[in-house]
Specification:
By secondary structure, the chain is mainly α. The chain has twelve helices and no strands. The chain is flat and about 205 Å long. Keywords: Cell projection, Coiled coil, Cytoplasm, Cytoskeleton, Repeat, WD repeat.
């Protein structure tokens, strides 16, 4: 390793080109502008000294240093502004590219939505077609099944109709034989009394009772009887059974025809003839019963066939109605087709509209019809608004007329009240005199003259009264002064008397028991008399003062001018 390191160092030293690049350009071939702006201009060494110690050369170097620093800062500012401008351009370009990308993405998304919508519509059409085909196939298969079933039932109906026709023909023939036998039986019964008319009535009645009498025959309940209840089943041995019954009946009739059963007094030849007639009647009745039983069975068979025919007919009608309904439904599905229509938003008008995807109850209407209907609605609405405005104006006029009517009524009430006030107005004598007197001004002038004379007389009288009152006031003033002097003298005397009383009281207090009771009583009596006298004097003076005050008030009131009512 040390050997290899030494070789590398020698190679670097020997590489003059690389060394020159490192020395001259810092190891790079191209110097970038941002690298130059990152450079720092070194300060001169003399800047460590104080400014006063700098030489002229150093000052010039300092100015060059400041100039370089200033230029470097300006270049940095210019470069920063250019970078900011470029940054804004890049940001605007990025924003514009983003908007273009968003718009392009939006258009692509809209195209995708439209494509999906078209695909879904086509899928819906395919599903509707498949559903229509399946429904048509199902209806066709159902119709074919009903047609086959109807043909089968019609064949069955034709077979039952033929069987019913044949059964009715056989029934008619058998019924005719039965009716003939019944008629023969009735003829035999009616001809009985004619054949024995030569005999007495009692014997005829006895013979008739014997003629009606029948032997009791026990029926044999065999499998043939059970099978006879079923008209469709085979009845083996039914002929043999009827022969056995008939033989047993004839055997019983032989017992009844015995001579021992003959009534008394009857001719044997008549009895033989009676037995022959009764045997013929019994044989005929047996045949009638056999025919009736056969007729009943045939009628039961015919009724059963009719019921089967009616059931088949009802089934045919039901199938026929169902086939008609199926055909109508098929025609309806063939006519009422499902159609997909693209409608703009706002062109679907439904009651209680919600977000639904099926409009089975909707009706497709032409746009022109809706526009015509809307124009008619607008016209009718304008007419309605015009009629409402007209009605509004009419109501407004009615309200105005009512207001004017109320105003006139109130004015009428005011005028009536004024008329009533005028009627009830109080007229004084002066007003009556003014209205009644023709020369009212002359009368007023005369009254004014009289009133002036009266005022002059009153004025003179008033002046005299004032002079008299003034004299009286002066007199009362002098009298009042005299009273004041007298009161002052009395007060002085009273003060002296009080002093004398106090002195006497002191003397009495000093003398003590020397004063007798009589002296004390006399002094008290004198004091009471003085007090009463002074009280009377003060009352008289108070009365005089009140009289004088009343007189002064009266005189003062007389000085005011008196207004005499006219």
């Amino acid at each position: 390793m040390p050997f290899e390191t030494g070789q590398l160092q020698q190679a670097r030293v020997s590489n003059a080109r690389q060394r020159a690049l490192m020395d001259m350009m810092g190891g790079v071939l191209e110097v970038k502008k941002e690298d130059i702006l990152r450079m720092v201009i070194p300060q001169p060494a003399f800047m460590a000294k104080a400014d006063a110690l700098w030489t002229e050369e150093e000052r010039k170097q300092f100015k060059d240093y400041e100039k370089k620093v200033k230029e470097l800062n300006e270049e940095r500012d210019k470069y920063r502004k250019s970078l900011e401008t470029e940054l804004k351009k890049l940001q605007n370009s990025i924003q514009e590219s983003t908007q273009n990308f968003d718009e392009h993405l939006k258009r692509l998304f809209e195209r995708r939505v439209k494509a999906e919508m078209v695909v879904n519509q086509e899928e819906l059409k395919i599903n509707n077609l498949v559903f229509s085909l399946l429904l048509d196939e199902e209806l066709s298969s159902r119709e074919q099944f009903l047609n086959n079933y109807l043909l089968k039932k019609q064949e069955e109906k034709s077979g039952t109709s033929i069987a019913i026709q044949k059964a009715r023909e056989d029934l008619d023939v058998f019924k005719e034989h039965h009716d003939n036998l019944v008629a023969e039986d009735k003829i035999l019964e009616r001809s009985f009394k004619k054949e024995f008319s030569e005999m007495s009535g009692h014997q005829v009645d006895i013979l008739y009772k014997l003629f009606k009498r029948r032997p009791r025959v026990h029926k044999q309940k065999t499998q043939a009887d059970v099978n006879s209840l079923v008209p469709y089943g085979d009845r083996p041995g039914s002929g043999k059974l009827s022969k056995d019954n008939f033989a047993q009946l004839m055997k019983s009739m032989d017992e009844l025809d015995n001579i021992n059963n003959m009534p008394e007094g009857l001719d044997p030849s008549v009895w033989e003839h009676f037995c022959i007639s009764r045997r013929a009647k019994v044989e005929n009745e047996y045949k009638v019963k056999q025919k009736a039983a056969g007729l009943q069975e045939m009628m039961t068979f015919l009724r059963k066939r009719l019921e089967d025919d009616e059931a088949v007919q009802h089934e045919i009608e039901r199938v026929f109605h169902e086939l008609i309904r199926l055909q109508e439904e098929k025609v309806k599905f063939q006519v009422n087709l499902t159609i997909q229509i693209l409608l703009k938003q706002g062109q679907v008008e439904l009651e209680n509209f919600q977000l639904i995807l099926e409009y089975s109850d909707a009706i497709l209407i032409n746009k022109n019809i809706i526009e015509d209907l809307n124009s008619v609605i607008r016209t009718q609405g304008q007419k309605k608004v015009a009629s409402m405005m007209e009605s509004k104006e009419v109501h407004k006029g009615i309200y105005q007329i009512e207001w004017e009517h109320k105003k006139m009524e109130m004015e009428m009430e005011d005028l009536n009240q004024k008329a009533w006030d005028i009627q009830m107005l109080f007229f004084s004598r002066d007003r009556q005199k003014y209205l009644n007197e023709p020369n009212y001004e002359n009368v007023i002038a005369i009254e004014i003259g009289i009133m002036e004379q009266t005022i002059n007389v009153i004025d003179k009288t008033h002046k005299k009264n004032v002079e008299h009152c003034k004299k009286l006031l002066r007199k009362l003033g002098r009298y009042s002064n005299q009273k004041d002097i007298a009161n002052y003298m009395l007060s002085c005397n009273l003060r002296e008397e009080l002093v004398a009383i106090s002195e006497r009281q002191d003397i009495c207090n000093e003398m003590g028991s020397k004063l007798t009771c009589e002296k004390i009583a006399k002094e008290r009596y004198d004091n009471l008399l003085k007090k009463q006298k002074l009280t009377n004097i003060s009352k008289q003076q108070a009365e005089q003062i009140s009289i004088l005050q009343a007189e002064v008030e009266r005189l003062r009131m007389k000085t005011f001018p008196a207004l005499i009512p006219m």
